[in-house]
Design goal:
The chain has about 400 residues and is mainly alpha-helical. It is built from 20 helices and three strands. The chain has helices spanning about 5-15, 15-25, 85-90, 95-110, 115-120, 130-145, 150-165, 170-185, 200, 210-225, 230-240, 245-265, 265-280, 290, 300-310, 310-335, 345-355, 360-365, 370-385, 390-395, and strands spanning about 5, 35, 40. α8 packs across α10 (about 210-225), α10 (about 210-225) packs parallel to α12 (about 245-265) and α12 packs antiparallel against α13 (about 265-280).
Length: about 400
């Protein structure tokens, strides 16, 4: 059989390249097959008759949460392709419990943890595994920011219990539990559960949107191992394939690239990814990820977002303070690693770069301030943390 590329199909049907890709992803093109990262379409395929569901102003429905598994839908908003600016429309297009969970996701990713916790909390005891796991993950992270640590721990324990009980369950349920458990542990910088299936086991069972976020989790794990090059390779590969169609995971992947490039002392490449994430996030106000990752972004928010979007920067920093307070109440006692909680966000950003062996001159050039300003920051940091050397400082940072 002869095939045509997505580009050739777009020209033949006189539609956009992005529309053809979305038609393929959502199963609207009969006979379309994926080879590596590219779609191949039978050469004699006619243009689908009804394109209304995939026009720019109409969101696409999410894929089934796990490939080949009907009725188990996990994190539907994360798994729905939509154009920037159409996030709320994507949520409204869903029905019943899926829309409820998607609203919880929307509230969370727009920096409204109280609303997210309330919306997700109603499904913590759901008999549907996908709904329950989605609710647990959202409820746990939302409660970090509202300082309800026991509520967060309850939800995290529910995920662990699901995973521990899933050794003999069908593969799709183990995949769901593995995905949520990995995200829960890695993003809190905690050890992975002993019962966690390998990513090679559960990744193929995830649909495109969740697979993209799972790759972000894997890249984040490698980042914590200081394997920045491999982490970056995973991110760049995911973004080169289908991840860009799914704004929520794509934002997190771009932020992961910022973290990697800053650790490799490549601020220009880091800035490119930060702006890509911001371009995708700003139309829908999906700013939570920027606040969550502040300390890992190497002062990039101070350098790029603060001077150009000062009001948004203030909101991001508010998210940072709220989220990091709760994050430390889980991470610090569970790991014995006392990440600093008495620095300002600017001091923390400077300390992170200094701990990663940036010189005072390099930090000053990156942040657009004088070397003497950076040295004053460093003096305050050492005084607050009662450290004298770069090596002692590392014990209090996310390195």
């Amino acid at each position: 059989m002869e095939y045509m590329t997505v580009q050739e199909a777009a020209e033949k049907w006189q539609v956009s390249l992005r529309l053809v890709q979305r038609l393929c992803v959502t199963g609207r093109v009969e006979g379309a097959r994926k080879f590596g990262g590219a779609w191949a379409i039978p050469a004699n395929t006619d243009k689908p008759e009804d394109l209304r569901r995939t026009k720019k102003d109409t969101p696409v429905q999410p894929e089934s949460a796990l490939n080949g598994t009907a009725g188990l839908t996990l994190l539907p908003l994360m798994n729905t392709p939509f154009q920037p600016g159409q996030c709320r429309a994507a949520v409204e297009a869903l029905e019943g419990p899926l829309r409820d969970i998607a609203w919880a996701e929307y509230h969370y990713f727009t920096g409204h943890p109280e609303e997210a916790a309330k919306a997700a909390g109603r499904y913590l005891t759901s008999s549907d595994p996908g709904l329950k796991l989605s609710a647990c993950l959202l409820y746990a992270y939302a409660n970090l920011s509202v300082h309800q640590i026991q509520h967060a721990r309850f939800a995290l324990d529910e995920v662990k219990s699901f995973l521990a009980a899933g050794a003999e369950t069908e593969p799709c349920l183990r995949a769901a539990g593995g995905f949520v458990a990995a995200a829960s542990a890695v993003l809190l910088h905690l050890p992975l559960p002993k019962t966690l299936p390998s990513i090679q086991e559960f990744l193929p069972l995830l649909p495109t949107g969740l697979r993209a976020f799972a790759l972000y989790v894997k890249a984040h794990y490698l980042y914590l191992q200081k394997d920045y090059a491999q982490s970056l390779g995973i991110v760049e590969t995911a973004l080169a394939m289908d991840a860009e169609q799914y704004p929520v995971p794509a934002i997190y992947l771009h932020l992961m690239a910022v973290m990697d490039y800053m650790s490799l002392k490549k601020p220009e490449q880091a800035q490119r990814h930060l702006l890509a994430a911001w371009t995708m996030a700003q139309p829908d106000d999906l700013i939570e990820g920027f606040g969550e990752h502040h300390g890992l972004l190497g002062a990039m928010l101070e350098t790029v977002i603060k001077p150009n979007w000062p009001e948004d920067f203030k909101r991001i920093i508010d998210i940072t303070y709220r989220f990091s307070w709760g994050w430390r109440r889980i991470h610090n006692p569970d790991t014995g690693h006392e990440v600093a909680d008495n620095l300002t966000t600017t001091e923390f950003a400077v300390a992170m770069l200094y701990a990663r062996e940036w010189t005072s001159e390099e930090i000053a050039a990156h942040m657009g301030v004088s070397v003497s300003t950076i040295k004053r920051h460093q003096a305050r940091i050492k005084r607050k943390l009662q450290v004298r050397s770069r090596q002692e400082l590392e014990k209090h940072m996310l390195v």
